[in-house]
Design goal:
- The complex is a heterodimer of chains A (422) and B (307).
- Chain A is of the alpha+beta class.
- Chain A has 3 domains: 102 residues, ATP-grasp fold, A domain (Dna Ligase, domain 1, 2-Layer Sandwich), CATH 3.30.1490.20; 127 residues, D-amino Acid Aminotransferase, Chain A, domain 1 (2-Layer Sandwich), CATH 3.30.470; 146 residues, Rossmann fold.
- Chain A contains 13 helices and 20 strands.
- With 307 residues, chain B is of the alpha/beta class.
- Chain B has 2 domains: 128 residues, 3-Layer(aba) Sandwich (Rossmann fold); 163 residues, Succinyl-CoA synthetase domains (Rossmann fold, 3-Layer(aba) Sandwich), CATH 3.40.50.
- In chain B, the strands form 2 sheets. Chain B has a 7-stranded mixed beta sheet with strand order 3-4-2-1-5-6-7, with helices on both faces. Chain B has a 7-stranded mixed beta sheet with strand order 9-8-11-10-12-13-14, sandwiched between helices.
- In chain B, helix 3 runs parallel beside helix 4, helix 5 packs across helix 10 and helix 6 packs parallel to helix 7.
- The chains are: A alpha+beta (422), B alpha/beta (307).
């Protein structure tokens, strides 16, 4: 989900993602209906979860669900077990009872835990599964789709529902956009009853399911606002044979800028799901995103950082990262940024592009010189400085005796670094 | 002429902490008419500023400036005492949306919010609050607004700007400086440069600014700098095609950005567009805008648009 971070593209600052089981805990605490489930980090924990879940529901079916921060888990497959899906329904209990279900869960959890799941969202390298969620089976009547997300065009949250549950919403939008219904939420009012009723009616619901869907949507919308989510997506939202409305899956991500008022959610962050270099960068308050190219970039400002990557590509290179040192960087921060970039063995050259405003060019120059002295310089370095105290900055670089190539503008700098790394 | 700010703009500062003080000092050096500040814990005190005049700003001033700004408890009190008609906000993110609403309630006509990192939910509420009020919000998360040699509100380096005929509107900070720098180097001064900010919920948008520049007799051309995400650029392109009477150049950052994946798409479904750089560039070109192929070509793209 790198795009989430992208400069201002979606928002400044990353969104905070949590696991499905955590999203369900949050929903359950707010009275939003979810199947019961238990988290397991070991095979024994997974097996121990089976009996209480079956005895509580009276339903002999349980589901074993890999917990990673990526969608498409059901259709995803493990590198170590190519026939096994990331979400697997255990039917053994129907004929064999609890013991048979336990045996099946022992086998599944044993294969899933520690293995690498590849889904359409993980990339080919996949993600290691360290937690599985054992959940009660549900008697499903219909599968629906529900999400709450910001509509930038009107600066308000919107609720989207569709009868096409279980399908990627992008596909629904492309092929049958008329099947997506929406309601815009007035922040002064919340989702009004009539709006929820319109949506439930549009989904073709009747009786208990109609009433339950209205309550569900109102509670979920309130949760979105109160918990500062930037996305809640329930896919599928299911209507049970008994007329209940329940979140069978649940994806929630949060506005990182609002986490100061939700410490219990901030604690749910799973750092093992994040890139170590990006985590290190975050410690220094640097916006950093790892990419696949060979030219490391250090830039001030998100827009300038994005366009620096654009121009590197324009002249035939590939950026190794997006790195915005921010507006008020210190020499220390610049040194830290430099170290993070040089740690990547794929980096064959570095391009520093700074337009000094508040951040003065001499500050950047001092930081670069310090960093090079500290970590050494194994690859070519091109520096383009412009703006506040530019002459002083250039002087510091020149007098440092370091092997640094100066650039007159962005394109010149991009061409030089691409040439030097050929 | 210019838009939004000029020598008649009387500016109040909300948040006279370290950041607020630093940029107030720079603004005073530039010659901006700073009239006071709101900072409840310092209410009743005077903040003193003095230093070397920035001669790239308001012309004809002595080499040294000195100012004493009164600090107030609330915007209402400050506005009454100083006659401020604009406010610049440096309040920390958790309190910034409230500061915007407070300024609006006090009838401040132009509110420029520099603060970065305001929760989106707070801005949704603040924007709803502003709906029926006759105020203009610029930002948040923006560099501010500058009319060269008249008034600088915000954090941009003043000296790169020169008075002239080009209106500048941008979602980015440093990329705006880059554009202004190129304009100035190509002999193109600016009427006013507006940073509208990069947050998903903001006040003034591209269309608002284009409309202002279109009506300003001194503005002869406009450069707009957009980036990936949302559909503000596409909407601007449509507006330009219908109403704009002046040449427009543009640049979109983020051609090489990896797709926003899930979140980006979910948002895009609502807005009915993908928000990619390619979509935006196509929309701008269709509206007859000269699009700079690289960020180094923004100045020359403006020259080309002017013909």
């Amino acid at each position: 989900m790198r795009g989430d971070y992208y400069g201002h593209a979606v928002r400044k600052g990353p969104s905070l993602k949590i696991h499905e089981y955590q999203a369900k805990q949050l929903m359950k605490a707010r009275g939003i209906s979810v199947p019961s489930g238990l988290l397991a980090t070991t095979v024994d924990e997974a097996v121990a979860a089976v009996r209480p879940l079956i005895e509580e529901s009276g339903n002999p079916v349980v589901v074993v669900k890999s917990q990673i921060h990526a969608g498409g888990r059901g259709k995803g497959r493990f590198i170590e077990h190519p026939d096994l899906g990331g979400v697997t329904v255990v039917l053994a209990g129907i004929d064999g009872g609890v013991e048979a279900a336990e045996a099946a869960v022992r086998d599944l959890a044993g294969k899933m835990l520690g293995s690498t799941l590849v889904t359409i969202q993980t990339g080919p390298e996949g993600k290691q599964v360290n937690r599985v969620y054992i959940e009660q089976g549900v008697d499903i009547e219909t599968e629906l789709y529900l999400s709450v997300v910001l509509d930038r065009a009107v600066s308000r949250n919107v609720v989207m529902v569709s009868t096409e549950g279980g399908t990627e919403i992008e596909e629904v939008a492309e092929h049958t956009p008329e099947k997506i219904l929406r309601a815009t939420i007035d922040p002064a009012i919340g989702l009004a009853n009539f709006q929820a009723a319109d949506l439930a009616y549009g989904l073709g619901l009747e009786g208990d399911a109609f009433k339950n869907a209205i309550s569900f949507m109102k509670a979920l919308t309130a949760a979105a606002v109160e918990l500062d989510t930037d996305l809640i997506e329930i896919n599928p939202l299911v209507v049970t044979k008994a007329g209940g409305v329940m979140a069978l899956d649940g994806k929630m991500s949060f506005d990182a800028n609002a986490m100061f008022r939700h410490p219990h959610i901030a604690q749910m962050r799973d750092e093992s799901e994040e890139d170590p270099a990006e985590l290190e960068a975050a410690e220094y308050d640097l916006s950093f995103i790892k990419l696949d190219g060979s030219i490391g970039c250090m830039v001030n400002g998100a827009g300038l950082a994005m366009s620096t990557m654009d121009i590197i590509k324009y002249v035939g290179g590939e950026p190794a990262n997006f790195l915005d040192v921010g507006g008020g960087a210190t020499a220390d921060k610049v040194t830290a940024a430099f170290k993070i970039i040089t740690k990547d063995p794929r980096v064959k050259g570095i391009f520093v592009n700074i337009f000094g405003g508040i951040m003065k060019c001499d500050t950047i120059a001092v930081g670069v010189v310090e960093a090079v002295k500290e970590v050494g310089l194994q690859v070519p370095l091109v520096v383009r400085l412009e703006g506040t105290n530019v002459d002083l900055g250039k002087q510091i670089i020149d007098e440092s005796g370091l092997n640094v190539v100066s650039a007159s503008d962005m394109k010149d700098g991009a061409q030089k670094i691409v040439e030097l790394t050929k | 002429m210019s838009v939004l700010v000029d020598t008649n703009t009387r500016v109040l500062v909300q948040g006279m902490g370290q950041t607020g003080r630093f940029h107030t000092d720079t603004a005073l050096a530039y010659g901006t008419n700073m009239v006071g500040a709101v900072h409840p814990s310092k209410a009743g005190t005077i903040e003193h500023f003095e230093g070397e005049t920035d001669h790239s700003g308001v012309q004809g001033r002595a080499d040294i400036y000195s100012a004493d700004l009164p600090i107030f408890r609330s915007v209402v009190e400050a506005a009454e005492a100083t006659g401020a008609n604009a406010s610049v906000i440096y309040v920390p993110p958790p309190f910034a949306a409230d500061a915007i609403m407070e300024a609006a309630a006090a009838g401040i006509e132009l509110i420029v919010c520099i603060t970065e990192g305001i929760p989106v939910g707070d801005m949704v509420i603040a924007k709803r609050y502003l709906e029926d009020k006759n105020v203009r919000l610029v930002g948040p998360n923006c560099p501010g607004v500058i009319t060269p040699q008249q008034c600088k509100i915000g954090i941009m380096p003043g000296y790169i700007h020169k008075p002239g005929k080009i209106g500048v509107v941008s979602r980015s900070g440093t990329l705006t400086y880059e554009a202004v720098f190129q304009l100035t180097n190509n002999g193109l001064g600016q009427t006013t440069a507006i940073g509208i900010g990069g947050d998903p919920v903001n006040g003034t948008n591209f269309v608002d600014c284009l409309d202002l520049f279109n009506q300003d007799p001194d503005t002869e051309g406009v450069i707009m700098i957009g980036e990936i995400g949302g559909t503000a650029e596409e909407e601007a392109a449509e507006w330009i095609q219908q109403y704009m009477t002046k040449p427009v150049a543009g640049f979109i950052a983020g051609t090489t950005a990896p797709a926003g994946k899930r979140m980006g798409h979910a948002g895009a479904i609502i807005s009915g567009g993908k928000g990619t750089a390619a979509d935006k560039i196509a929309a701008l070109k269709k509206a007859g805008i000269v699009v700079a192929p690289t960020p180094t070509d923004m100045g020359t793209a403006m020259l080309e648009a002017l013909g």
